[in-house]
Amino acid sequence: xxxxxxxxxxxxxxxxxxxxxxxxxILEILGRAPNRTELGVFSVMWSEHCSxxxxxxxxxxxxxxxPWVICGPGENAGVIDIGEGLACIFKMESHNHPSFIExxxxxxxxxxxxxxxxxxxxxxxIANMNALRFGSPDNAxxxxxVAGVVAGIGGYGNCVGVPTVGxxxxxxxxxxxxxxxxxxxxxxxxxxxxxxxxxxxxxNPVVYVGSKTGRDGIHGATMASAEFNADSEExxxxxxxxxxxxxxLLIEACLELMATDCIVAIQDMGxxxxxxxSFEMASKGGxxxxxxxxxxxxxxxxxxxxEFLLSESQERMLMVLKPGSEDVARAIFDxxxxxxxxxxHLTDSGRMVIKMKGAVEADLPIDPLxxxxxEYDRPWEKTPTQGTIDPASVPHSGGILATLQxxxxxxxxxxxxxxxxxxxHLVMGDTVIRPGGDAALVRVRDTKRALAMxxxxxxxxxxxxxxMGGRQAVAETWRNICAVGARPLAITDNMNFGNPTNPRIxxxxxxxxxxxxxxxxxxxxxxxxxxxxxxxxxxxxxxLPTPAIGGVGLMDDYTKAVGVAWRDGDSLVLLGATKGHLxxxxxxxxxxxxxxxxxxxxxxxxERITGExxxxxxxxxxxxxxxxxxxxxxxxxxxxxxxxxxxxxxxMNKAGDVPLHAxxxxxxxxxxxxxxxxxxxxxxxxxxxxxxxxxxxRTGGILLTLKGERVLLDDLRESHEGWLPDYMAVA
Amino acid sequence: MKAKIHVTLKSGVLDPQGKAVGHALGSLGFxxxxxxxxxxxxxxxxxxxxxxxxxANVEEMCKKLLANTVIExxxxxxxx
Amino acid sequence: MTAAIVTFPGSNRERxxxxxxxxxxxxxxxxxxxxxxxxxxxxxxVIPGGFAYGDYLRAGAMAxxxxxxxxxxxxAQQGVLVLGVCNGFxxxxxxxxxxxxxxxxxxxxxxxxxVHLRVERADTPFTQGYRKGEIFKCPVAHHDGNYFADSETLxxxxxxxxxxxxxxxxxxxxxxxxxxxxxxxxxxxxxxxxGNVLGLMPHxxxxxxxxxxxxxxxxxxxxxxEALAGAPA
Lengths: 731, 80, 233
Fold this sequence. Notes:
The complex is a heterotrimer of chains A (about 725), B (about 80) and C (about 230). Chain A is α+β, with helices and mostly antiparallel strands and about 725 residues long. Helices cover about 35% and strands about 25% of the residues of chain A. In chain A, the strands form five sheets. Chain A has a seven-stranded mixed beta sheet. A seven-stranded mixed beta sheet of chain A has the order 23-25-22-26-24-27-28, with helices on both faces. A six-stranded mixed beta sheet of chain A has the order 1-2-3-6-4-5. The longest helix of chain B has 16 residues, at about 50-65. Chain B starts with a strand and ends with a strand. Chain C has five helices and eleven strands; from the N terminus they run βαββαβαββββαβββα. In chain C, the strands form two sheets. In chain C, strands 2-1-3-4-11-10-9-6-7 form a nine-stranded mixed beta sheet, with helices on both faces. In chain C, strands 5-8 form a two-stranded antiparallel sheet. In chain C, helix 2 (about 65-80) links the parallel strand 3 and strand 4. Chains in contact: A-C, B-C. The interface of B and C includes residues 64, 65 and 70 of B.
């Protein structure tokens, strides 16, 4: 052991985010007291971020298999079969806390990290998405955070040359002190060239590639596992700085090396850096590992073992190579001007032995540390249900179309063009459906196939009813993918919640997982990867529960896909039942000033057959445009279609017994609007499946009209497009 | 010795970044802020021991790479 | 007719360019790595979009000093056609193969959107697929596309017909509202004095498929193919 080991006092243990019980377990595993370096290793390996100690029990209940799933959760990302010998590899991950402290670098390195998770497995990244939640627009920090996060995502994604094709962005006061930055990457690999992280082969070299190691982000993983407090801004030094140029080189170098036959196992150095990556590789392969830190490329002088092991410097990978292939690999990394160093080898000891300047700095058993990490069954309380709001009890005054115009300029419904125009959404030349519609659609190079992708979650529903909210988040991704004509295949879940030691918060988590589970089962739509971000609280105030779902679907022939822009002279058919559900709607919050009631129920069986109908309509060429109905309800969806096409419509009031404002703005689930030149075909096919379908209008002109009311598209556009740029422009 | 190099936009070339910074300073309540011009500062460690030669070398570096003389000026200072 | 695409560490739109050239020329272009000092014998050299060397220091500055750029300059001198798109345009100005410079966008933000371009001349190999004054749609995606030239240079390139494209409205009107980056005189692309080197910020290669953003850029590649059709294979 190194000579000077400061004593491990209770306060040192606490500083490392470990409980007294956890420390007792460390003593038991080691049979002695750890030194400080070893304590640091335990601290990051057992952090919530790396160990999933509060969430594991519940995550295990999620369905993760289907005939098309090649690899479910547990690897760097999930893998699904998309035919023609190709696999889609994808995952979504949070970078919430770093993005609040330093929005540009926090968001940028979030993109970098998720890209590495995907190309580590052998995939070329083909698209990025992001799900963003900011505080109230009235909060003094919000604008600065929006500007920084968006610039950071763009700065990184644009430079690496992967298109950022979509996402979502909400505002709510519960995120004032804890914004959410969830980044998703989708990549493509050959099914016979997928790389995993399990180390194998005693004596095989362990190789470090990429950027040099500095003192960046030490203890980022433990920061991501603790609540924020007023001192958080002092934690700025632990935020890492991203270098997208190096990442681009790393992608190209790794993919070039992967085309050879040199790699046994590969893992990116993400949260907890070298520690986590080497432990995971060794643990999965049942191996031991010996590392010599003197060989690690260092950016700063005088770094300690503790710092080397816990640094979160970006753009680094760890690989186990086949013996004798070092020279081939080194030549590739030399070509791309990246560091390449053999820093150790695999052993059969089942231990991780870290040496530096000839001394042993850490000697830890791998399995007890990696596998025996704590698992908690935290107490939880079921979220009390809220009553369903009678739409007739919610008053309405003024014109319906005037209300529509007001709603289109509210933060959650306003156009997010200001954001996505800062993202290169076209690079690589395969973006079929661009941001601003339902799912984005990206062609699979050299095939007719395309991948549809979307991220969705309605946090206000999740707060009111976590089970229904969890269902709805999954169902909405399903709907967005069906709306372009693609078949939904699998999801990645990014669970953002408050402090799990609070039973109320834990109950939200448990409920959301239950809702996600039900939806995945009913829709044959498994979870293949995911990430949990807990402790999203500031001074005891938690975020809305936000289980962000990223969905991926497959289109066999991209030329058949439809967008949201309808054509002139189309008939409009509303699919699904409209009951005028106003509880937890945007209308209720923005117009009536209330945030209450039960969220709209999601009928999963109906959801499934309606989605299948929509896909049949698109595949058969029966519809020219399709849009799912979500936030803001029917009229908001119609307005979005009209604005995309720059063609108006005459809307027929088919409200029946439902009050007009509830018909117009209620958020009943499982609904789509399709535009067709022959409405009868649509109505017949819907009737055959027993799905409610109503002719509700005809397209044409430059106005939206309804029951004698009218509004110019140009006026709607000004409201819809104006809010975000105007908000961001005011200094 | 060390070269300290300032690269700035030529006067007459619009500097939108400087303008934005000036605007932001104003809205933060700093009075009396005139025109703001933003530039780059670069430090280079040199093994050369003769100040004159060092300066000539660095000026060559500026012309060739560090500044784009279509839009930028540069100033070189050599320190012990 | 043959083409080569020069790539640097950080180039990222070479794939888009490969597709567009392959479609128009009927065969794939050669890819040349920046450390090479020799170019294959080709009729067209393309410098694609991206962030060569991360755009660190200044967009295009370090790439312009790459070994291969000496060879590009020699070929340009001999009259070989050279096309630089986006980062390629920045590299060509930094290498002084084209007049002027590209500065940070006036709005200070990266901008990816469709713009309309007006064809200022249709008598060059690059634009013979268009009519003079034709307006076409094509995307931009850049952070540093704000074209600048001093008044003397500007008078010269305007006077000598070296402006290739200008940003405009769908109807062809000029004005700051239609220029995404603040470029002087709405300039989107320029030629060198001999007309064999063209640089432009927009991405015609990303507008060559009907279902993926339309065919606005296709005539540029079709025109090049026609112009070079007589050239030895």
